[in-house]
Structures are given as C-alpha cells and as structure tokens.
Design brief:
single chain, about 190 residues, alpha+beta, tt1808, chain A, six-stranded mixed sheet, three-stranded antiparallel sheet, 5 helices, 12 strands, about 25% helix, about 30% strand, globular
C-alpha cells in the first residue's frame, strides 16, 4: 500500500526537504510514502545487487550499483516527478559528482545508465506502465522490469523517445542486457534467489 500526503509541492521544494528516513516519491506534486517491501522483493534486489556488482568487478567496468536513489522525471505540465527505482547503475564519476546533493536524485538530463524496478503486488500498473513511460521521459538508457508476480523479466532500451523491448525473459531463459553484456543469469534464478 502507498500513502499519499495531501500537501502539493514543487520538485525544487521536494529536493530541499530534510531526509527523514522514509522512502518517498514525488508524483503530480504529492509526496508518496512507499510501503515496506516484501521479503521476496528484498531477496530479489539483494541477489541482483550482488550479481551485478560481481559482474562489474569481473569485467572491470567503471560502474556503481545503488538503491534508494531517485530519478527526476520531466513533465510538460505540472511539477516534475521523482521516482525511486529499486536499483540504479551509473558510472562512478557520475555518482561522485552527486555526493554533495541534498537528496540522492539523478536530476533531469543526468539519468542513471540503468534502472531496475521489481514489481510489487497491488502496484503492477505503476511499476510496469507508468514508470516505464516516466523513465523514458527521464532518458534512462536501459530499464528492467522484474515481475515475480507474472514470472518474467523485461529488458528495455531507449530508442528515440520510447523504450524498445530487448526481450521478455522467463524461466530458464538467460537475461540479455545491453549495458551488462556477458551477464549470465536465468530468470528463474532472479525470481527465486
């Protein structure tokens, strides 16, 4: 369940709010408190972080993996949104340049290289439709939708203004990532770590 706070604020005001230990997103000018993740959700995130970090080390890639980091979503009408993917990957220098920010948020025109969203029960449309559109607006080059509810991982890459599907992977299929080429993991291993 998601709790919405009623006061409407602008993105700049959201950035200046002190960190209170709560995981939040800014959607249509409203601060949304995210609920606690399920144990499976946490297990999937932890497994992916460990897997990706090992791959980055093995391939000597200059990338970092982080959680709890927001992404500014530009909007034509109304205040910009701020979404909080479960995992982000970006170059080390990009992360270091953000260290003095008030909040850990990739600002407009400076998106992470990859965002991963693990679908939550009761939040499927937001995780699979809304965030897909929003991360495309934010120009995130690669986006994974990890869906343990329906049993798949969808890998998307930005192609113009929209995402193009690299593949929807299930069961024993090996996931294919453009950013993390050579990463070998089956979907069933991700969905049941």
């Amino acid at each position: 369940m998601i709790t919405t706070l009623t006061k409407s604020i602008r993105f700049a005001e959201y950035l200046l709010l002190p960190y209170d230990g709560q995981r939040t997103e800014l959607v249509d000018g409203k601060i949304i408190k995210m609920t606690e993740a399920s144990p499976l959700h946490i297990d999937i995130i932890d497994f992916l972080i460990d897997l990706i970090k090992a791959h980055i080390t093995e391939q000597s890639l200059d990338l970092v993996v982080r959680t709890g980091v927001g992404v500014e979503i530009p909007r034509a009408v109304g205040p910009n949104n701020a979404r909080d993917p479960d995992i982000v990957i970006c170059p080390s220098q990009q992360w270091k340049a953000m260290r003095d920010f008030t909040k850990a948020i990739f600002l407009m025109d400076n998106p992470p290289t990859l965002a991963v969203q693990v679908v939550s029960p009761g939040n499927q449309t937001v995780d699979t439709v809304d965030k897909r559109q929003e991360y495309a607006l934010a120009r995130v080059p690669e986006y994974w939708i990890v869906n343990p509810i329906d049993g798949y991982v969808l890998v998307l890459v930005l192609d113009g203004d929209d995402y193009r599907e690299v593949g929807e992977y299930r069961e024993q299929e090996l996931l294919e990532s453009k950013l993390l080429s050579g990463l070998t993991v089956t979907v069933d291993r991700i969905l049941d770590p």
